[in-house]
Automatic annotation (TrEMBL):
SUPFAM superfamilies: Flavoproteins (SSF52218). It comes from the Bacteria. The keyword ATP-binding does not apply. This is Putative NADPH-quinone reductase (Modulator of drug activity B). Belongs to the NAD(P)H dehydrogenase (quinone) family. Keywords: Oxidoreductase. Pfam families: Flavodoxin_2. Gene3D superfamilies: 3.40.50.360. InterPro entries: Flavodoxin_fold, Flavoprotein-like_sf, NAD(P)H_dehydrogenase_qn. GO terms for molecular function: NAD(P)H dehydrogenase (quinone) activity. PANTHER family: NAD P H OXIDOREDUCTASE-RELATED (PTHR10204), NAD(P)H DEHYDROGENASE [QUINONE] 1 ISOFORM 1 (PTHR10204:SF34).
Amino acid sequence: MKRIYILNGHPAEKSLSRTFAEIYALAARGAGHEVRLTHLHDLAFDSDFGFAGYTQLKPLEPDLEQVLADMAWSEHFVLATPMWWGGLPAKLKGLIDRAFLPGRTFDTHDMKFGLPAPMLGGRSARVILTSDTPGWFMRLAYKNALLWQLRRQILGFVGFKPSRFTHFSMASHVKSAVLDRWLDQVRKIGANAG
């Protein structure tokens, strides 16, 4: 059994990302895994990093401290998020900017190949991504840029490996039969803690 931390990265109170996060959580709990679930909408923090470099840092708000504690507790991290304008929602990016800090998620005193050592190693990740961009177009025209950013420059940088992705495209106007298939897929992933 695994300790799983799920972050619904959609800033709205209700969303498809929230539904996926909750379905995953139910399936994982049903399979005997320990689960913690956070909704970005419920978190209170200033998303503006506000400084250049890491010489000055704002104290982290309690909600950001809890996110870091839940990540440290976890063995598997799940992020459910939409893709907006080719990237992450601003509040989610702000959470990463503010909380993924030296000494908390990476170690600048332990450099390997010119990069700081990750501090969240030994953990896997799953990203459940929604978009209106068709998968084939995302691959051919955008070279899966957001997937690469998440896998290499964010999750991998702090130690989450492997990082697996489930991409549901054309998500804004999904037909109910398609949505049912997507929900079944998320249930299966959750039950297997994948």
